[in-house]
């Protein structure tokens, strides 16, 4: 047996001996009297009542009362309910709402080689193609959104206007 092993063995034996003495020794046999236990319980009860009184005197601020009232009130919707919409695309990412009546459903993305296709309102489109609704062109296709613009010089109703600003509509993918 090496010197190192002997030192470790002695340390283990000493630890076991100390634990046994502490567990079975005279300190373990000291019992407190019922009167001493009663005094300890009374002291603990007085600490608890003092703390409760201090908290009652401090009171709650208006903000804390408001937070508690909101937490106790019935919630209109479940804040943890999963909507199924892609994260970050819950609100349309468009600078403007787009022309009146413009409502598209982007439901699919397909990429074969360098060709991209989008399924919008159940029909397949490539970038640059005009939508069947008329007056709209698919500008760019991404896996999570499609960019649609109004045709230059037209409005949503097909009315010619030379000074009409091209509007960009960003439609998120819906599954």
Mind explaining what this structure looks like?
With 175 residues, the protein is of the alpha+beta class. It has a domain at 106-172: SH3 type barrels. It has helices at residues 3-24, 34-58, 62-72, and strands at 106-112, 115-120, 123-125, 136-141, 145-150, 168-172. The strands form two sheets. A three-stranded antiparallel sheet has the order 1-2-3, with no helix packed on it. β1 and β2 form a beta hairpin. It is elongated and about 95 Å long.
Anisotropy-based shape: elongated
Q: Can you tell me the residue ranges where pLDDT is under 50 for at least 5 consecutive residues?
A: 87-100
Structural class: alpha+beta
Roughly how many Å is the radius of gyration?
A: 37 Å
Throw out a few tags for this protein:
three-stranded antiparallel beta sheet, SH3 type barrels, alpha+beta, 175 residues, elongated, 6 strands
Topology record:
Layout: H1 3-24, H2 34-58, H3 62-72, E1 106-112, E2 115-120, E3 123-125, E4 136-141, E5 145-150, E6 168-172
Antiparallel strand pairs: 1-2, 2-3, 4-5, 5-6
Short account of what is shown:
This protein has 175 residues and is an alpha+beta fold. It has helices spanning 3-24, 34-58, 62-72; strands at residues 106-112, 115-120, 123-125, 136-141, 145-150, 168-172.
């Amino acid at each position: 047996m090496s010197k190192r092993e002997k030192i470790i063995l002695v340390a283990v034996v000493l630890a076991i001996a100390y634990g046994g003495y502490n567990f079975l020794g005279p300190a373990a046999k000291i019992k407190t009297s019922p009167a001493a236990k009663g005094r300890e319980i009374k002291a603990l009860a007085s600490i608890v009542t003092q703390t409760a009184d201090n908290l009652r005197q401090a009171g709650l601020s208006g903000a804390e009362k408001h937070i508690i009232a909101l937490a106790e009130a019935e919630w209109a919707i479940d804040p943890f309910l999963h909507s199924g919409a892609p994260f970050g695309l819950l609100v349309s990412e468009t600078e403007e709402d787009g022309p009146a009546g413009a409502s598209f459903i982007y439901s699919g993305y397909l990429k074969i080689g360098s060709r991209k296709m989008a399924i919008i309102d159940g029909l397949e489109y490539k970038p640059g193609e005009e939508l069947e609704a008329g007056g709209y062109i698919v500008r760019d296709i991404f896996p999570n959104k499609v960019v649609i613009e109004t045709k230059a010089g037209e409005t949503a109703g097909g009315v010619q206007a030379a000074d009409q600003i091209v509007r960009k509509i960003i439609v998120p993918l819906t599954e």
